[in-house]
Specification:
heterodimer; A: about 425 residues; alpha/beta; D-Maltodextrin-Binding Protein, domain 2; 9-stranded mixed beta sheet; 9 strands; B: about 350 residues; mainly alpha; MetI-like fold; 2 domains; two-stranded antiparallel ribbon; 15 helices; MetI-like_sf (chain B)
Chain lengths: ~425, ~350
Amino acid sequence: MQTPKTRRVRLATSAMLALTLATTAAACGGGDDEGTTADGKIKLTVATFNEFGYEELIEEYNAMQDDVVVEQKKAGTANEHQDNLYTKLAAGSGLSDIEAIEVDWWSALMEQSDAFVDLSDPEVEGRWLDWKTEAATTPDGALIGYGTDIGPEGICYRADLFEKAGLPTDREEVAELFGDWDSYFEAGREFVEKVPGTAWYDSSGGTAQAMINQVEYSFEDEDNTVIAADNPEVKEVFETITANAADGLSTGLTQWSEDWTASFQDDGFATMACPGWMLGVIEGNAAGVEGWDIANVFPGGGGNWGGSYLTVPAQGDHTEEAKELAKWLTAPEQQIKAFEAKGTFPSQVEALDDPALTGSTNAFFNDAPTGEILADRAEAVPFIAHKGPKFADINTAFQQAIQRVDEGQESADEAWDSFLADIERLG
Amino acid sequence: MKAGSTAVEPVGDTGASSVSPTGSRSPRKRRDVGPRPAWRQRLTLLDAKVTPYVFVSPFFVLFLVVGMFPLGYTAWVSIHDWGLLSGQGEFNGLDNYRRVLEDRYFWNALRNTFSIFVLSSVPQVLIALALAGLLDTQLRARTLWRMSVLLPFVVAPAAVALIFGNVFGDRYGLANELIQWIGLDPIRWHVDTLASHVAIASMVNWRWTGYNALILLAAMQAVPRDVYESAALDGAGRVRQFVSITVPMIRPTVIFVIITSTIGGLQIFAEPRLFDTQGLGGADRQYQTLTMYLWELGWRVRDLGMASAVAWLLFLIIVVFALLNLFLSRRAGSLKGLNRKGGRR
């Protein structure tokens, strides 16, 4: 029998159940590392993203001493890595002993400098390029990050596809073609006409980012006031890139997406802006593809894209040991080895004229003298673009606006307007 | 048991002594033989009444700590300026709610959430019901079949997202290759709003259909077999039996499945989050769900106050929908049932 009363009780129970499930369904992950291994050694974790070239260095460090075991945690993209960093920074626990931080996010995290150990040490004074150290020093003189690499950019290209299009293939001749952005895009228009089905560059986003990095004050001015909406230089980059996409220069893919990764194997595009650390990424994605080369040139002079720091979060259990490890990993000798492995170009002064660096070649890029080329490219960088605390957030919105045009969801004008609305929203 | 009754004792004691000053002694004395047996009796009564609650209390205490406390704390955060890293700021009343409701991405996320919810939950429950009906028949190697429908549930959502990410690649995906092989135009799974919702819903369905089917199967097995026999004698076919006997008889379980999938469906996060590398639900936020929107506010915009406001709005939406679904499915059930007045069984 089902009396009205049991009905009501059942209804109440079901409602209660619904409430319970609704409130408990949100789960969260917990930390697992206790900081020591089973045999009593100190366990240090190093969290990085993309390719830092640390795999062999960490093995070397582990073999060098007895009481510390180092493990690397690699995130696929800088975004993912940063999300994790923010989450655990807010939670106050769960971060690795050493966290890599990309320069785009750097000033947002500088506002939280208390959360990181002051790494200043007489031993490392003068180790890095001045601007690299200055950016990592707080107003009261604490050094919260050790520089790893910088991102001087060259142009990577597919010599085999260039040949198909009747363009020069030799890297010196190619360099002459790309003196400024106009000539680079013009060559692209010629290329896509002759080789249909293959785009000129890998993504609108990556190219836009390269151009934005050449603007000293792009999204924020000296006082970190947001100027993105009224900055004619930003608007110009936006207009150029979206016009190019209409001409078929871009693959229309987002960097780091699965299709983007797959396009390396499929003759998806012929060139891309490549900072040193991108060499390792290209080599990984384009494994088995022959014809990659790098030209000692960058449109519009020089440009720096990315580069990172190693920090030691104050919440770690073994900050002393972590500092030692960070100091070792960012020493010039080690950075040169990382460069040889994955192309991460040193920010360390001493490494720059080290014959091990300048003499290094890269077999995948047709034995190009990558050390020499990137050293030249680093010298050609006229200034380091200013990136305030909101840079990464605005940049994401900027990239999305470009992507919407690529995907045909909005016209260039509509996308620009919604970009302005997004800036407004970020506050 | 012993520990329980000794713990209750002082309660009974104070209860008895508090009776005397009120002057209600004489009628009580008449009913009770003496003060001591009265205590005993009342103690036993209390024991019978209170002990069950003591036994079920661990759940409710836990629920209070891990369920109600975060709920309350989230409400507290939602009425303050609260940065992810900077922590608690000024009290600002309902300002966070106002800002959320004025944000166009909130409404966009709401639309996406409902669309993905409908595309996932409806087919999911229907397929699970049919699947359970099939598994309830006399199959060879029944256990194998029953176990195998649970297999997708065991695979981690991140792995599912990875595999489906390959299947639903815009340019180089397996699904598009098949579609082109048939001779149709490729679908832009990551660009077109509806296509992206279908792709995400299929990930969700892949994961949850088998799980729900097993729950429904368990309920079906409790249906007495003789009912089917008499139905068969009356000339009812398989389908008719399923619709007229099985489904009405497992109605409470169906309601349970509908409510849990409503709750799950409105909270979809991992699948759309991992559908691209940016994690914002596409360049135009075509597949940003409410939970992803919440995450964006909290961890990208780093405004926990607004994120908490979204959490509360989402909570209210879910409660409303769970109750609505409960009401609708009960209603539908009793309309289809033998007797509208609830006199069945």
